[in-house]
Amino acid sequence: MLSERRLEVLRAIVQDYVGTEEPVGSKALTERHRLGVSPATVRNDMAVLEEEGYIAQPHTSAGRIPTDKGYRLFVDRLAGVKPLSTPERRAIQNFLDGAVDLDDVVGRTVRLLAQLTRQVAVVQYPSLTRSTVRHVELLSLAPARLMLVLITDTGRVEQRLIDCQAPFADTSLADLRARLNSRVVGRRFTDVPPLVQDLPESFEAEDRGTVSTVLATLLETLVEEAEERLMIGGTANLTRFGHDFPLTIRPVLEALEEQVVLLKLLGEASESGMAVRIGHENAYEGLNSTSVVSVGYGSGGESVAKLGVVGPTRMDYPGTMGAVRAVARYVGQILAES
């Protein structure tokens, strides 16, 4: 276990290196921070931190920089989440409040996160499997053709065309729409099948085939393994950190193009808590020089999807964590109110 003083020295090294991009020496530390000890003591503490693997010397006669292990300790023990200022919070709310639909919400969230953190922002669309039914609409397009529209509590809209075996009267359609909504609105997708299985029997014999077809289409939509969707933005921000990537930025860019990789990274965030993966903690080799900060978002305390940012390990962790958490909270509020 490191002493409190050495933890303070590590915190100072991380803060200075993130702020200046230059390796940090003992003289600079004692000048910039009130550590309450002599430069000789700070040098001794830095030697211990280096021996323990928390900092490293990039080249001879240089100062020290944090390692992945050092950043990890900084995040776990030393970095509080930095609260956003009142103007920042107001700007987030005003920017997101203008969204007109789910695509707009996700698009605005990506742009906002990228601007706030100056990193690459990644936002996952709400998952159908975690959603509840807000409304089922049935529309007549022709005497024997219908459109089913499923609207979820997260604002997601799924549409399906249905070709019926025989014409379906408008009165029957209205009756089916009303009965269907009375049973399924507010229910989780997984709860719906047993609630509607006896519906065909309550209709006239000539309508039962069409009702069964509509129900089959609805149930297919509910259980369908809809492709997980992501939106990514701010990739150009990485070019500002070229010297933070050992050889080339290409492996990072290639990793960001892999949706499966990004979904797995975001999936490591717990339902409500925040996940911070630093450097080699990322299983995908192309992201070993990056850190990923992610959190779940949703309404009513339940996570329906994840969002986060990807950037170099030399990251303002308190500020980034604060921004990611604040944006997730506002997106959750928008979904709850929409």
Question: What's the short story on this structure?
Answer:
The chain has about 350 residues and is α+β, with helices and mostly antiparallel strands. The chain contains twelve helices and ten strands.
What is the element layout, followed by pairings?
Elements: H1 4-20, H2 26-32, H3 39-51, E1 55-56, E2 65-66, H4 68-78, H5 86-97, H6 102-117, E3 120-124, E4 133-142, E5 145-152, E6 157-163, H7 170-184, H8 192-196, H9 208-223, E7 230-233, H10 250-256, H11 259-267, E8 274-278, E9 290-297, E10 305-312, H12 317-337
Antiparallel strand pairs: 1-2, 3-7, 3-10, 4-5, 5-6, 8-9, 9-10
Helix pairs in contact: 1-3, 1-4, 2-3, 5-12, 6-12
Q: Could you explain how this protein is built, in words?
A:
The chain has 338 residues and is of the alpha+beta class. The protein has 12 helices and 10 strands. 44% of the residues lie in helices and 17% in strands. The model has no long low-confidence stretch (mean pLDDT 86). The strands form 3 sheets. Strands 7-3-10-9-8 form a 5-stranded antiparallel beta sheet, with helices on both faces. Strands 4-5-6 form a 3-stranded antiparallel beta sheet. A hairpin with a 2-residue loop joins β4 (133-142) and β5 (145-152). The two termini are 49 Å apart.
For the structure shown, list the relevant keywords.
single chain; 338 residues; alpha+beta; five-stranded antiparallel β-sheet; three-stranded antiparallel β-sheet; 12 helices; 10 strands; 17% strand
Structural class: alpha+beta
First-last Cα distance = 49 Å
Strand order in the largest sheet? 7-3-10-9-8
Task: Bin the helical content.
Answer: 40-55%
Tell me, briefly, the overall form: elongated
Q: Name the average pLDDT.
A: 86
Along the chain, the helix and strand elements come as HHHEEHHHEEEEHHHEHHEEEH
SS field, number of helical segments: 12
Q: Report the β-strand fraction as a percent range.
A: 15-25%
Radius of gyration: 26 Å
Which stretches of 5+ consecutive residues score pLDDT under 50?
A: none
Describe the largest sheet.
5 strands, antiparallel
Number of strands: 10
